Amino acid sequence: MERSLLRSGVVALVGFSMLLTSAASVHGQEDPQPSRDPAVYKAQLRQFSVLGRRTLREIQALPVDDSIPVDPRVHQNARQAYILVRAARWGMELQMQRETSFQDPLLKLAHKRVDEAWHLARFPVDNTGLQRSEYISRSVQEVSRALQLVDQALVMLP
Fold first, then answer.
1. pLDDT tens per residue across span 97-150
2. How many CB atoms sit inside 10 A of residue 74's CB?
3. Tens of pLDDT along 53-64?
4. DSSP characters over 7-68
C-alpha cells in the first residue's frame, strides 16, 4: 500500500515537473532571438509591422469605459510586437558591431529609426494602468509612429 502511494506520488511529481518544463520551453520559443543576419531582423521587422497594425486596430476598438475588462490578447499582442522590434533592434546592433572597418550609413539610419520605434512600442505594454481613454489615445499615437518608423527602416535596409 505504501509503495503504491509512493509510486503514485513520484509519478505525479514527474508529470508535474514535465509540465513545467514543457511550459517553460514553449514560452522560450515565443520570444524571437536576435540575429545579425539581415534576412532575420528584416523578417522580424515585417512581423512587427503586421502584428503592430493588428494591435493598433485592437486598441482603437477598446471600449473607453474602464469598468469593461480588456481582452488579454490585446496586451499579449502588444507585448509580442514589442518583443519583435526589440529582437530586430538587437540584431541590427550585432550587425553594426561586426562591421568594425566600414559602418553602413543606411544601416545606422535604419537602426536609429528602429531604436525610436522600440521605445514607442513599449507604451501599450508598460502603461496598462492609465485611464482607458488616455491609454487608447497615447497607445494609438505611439504605435502609429512606431509603425511609420519601422516602415521607413525597412525601405532603407538592403
1. 887 777 789 999 999 999 999 999 999 999 999 999 999 999 999 999 999 999
2. 19
3. 999 999 999 999
4. HHHHHHHHHHHHHHHHHHHHHHHHSPPP-S-HHHHHHHHHHHHHHHHHHHHHHHTS-S-TTS
Segments in 99-131 forming alpha helices (H): 105-121, 123-126
Amino acid at 111: H
11: cell is 509519478
Alpha-carbon span 11 to 25, nearest angstrom: 21
Rounded to whole angstroms, what are the CA distances from 157 to 35, 123, 154? 15, 25, 5
Separation CA 104–CA 111 (nearest Å): 11
Phi-psi region of 104 (alpha: psi -120 to 50; beta: other; left: phi over 0): beta
Q: In b/e form, how buried is each residue of 130-154, taking b as 16+ CB within 10 angstroms?
A: bebeebbeebbebbebbbebbebbb
**Which triple of cell numbers denotes residue 120?**
514607442
pTM of the predicted protein model = 0.78
What is the rounded CA–CA span in Å between residue 4 and residue 143?
Answer: 57
